[in-house]
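For this section, I looked closely at a protein sequence along with its fold in token form, which I now present.
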Amino acid sequence: SSSNDSSEEASSGQLQTLKGKVVQVIDGDSIEVKVGSKEETVHLEGIDAPEFKQEGGEEATSYLKKLVKDKEVEVRWEKRDDFDRILGMVYVDDNFINLEMVAKGWAWHFARYNKSDQLAQAQKDAKAAKLGLWKENDPTAPWDFRKNNPRTAK
């Protein structure tokens, strides 16, 4: 494993891979991964799950726990966000977790920042099947919730 010399320069579109064990699921789209002796916060790229205090937030978090907690994950990533979190595509074996969260209806495809057809299609299918959050007719998107509840949102 390399030192931190140039990992910040990764925004050049160079895909990096990180492997580690998920020690904590923070919410429906963020996890803590232990890599060697270091812990990294990883935000699941391209998806937005309901905030914890929001309708569906606890369920989304529990579902993600079921998928990744205490498991070895591989994270493929290019850049960090403004909070120094890695924006990553998370895999457990061949299971693409970001996609799984959207496909099961526990997260939105964050279409504003992510152009994945795969995630867009998964959301359409989940919505049509009324899975997870889509059991409600008109669930509040997390970005709207955060805008309307600036204090409770993280």
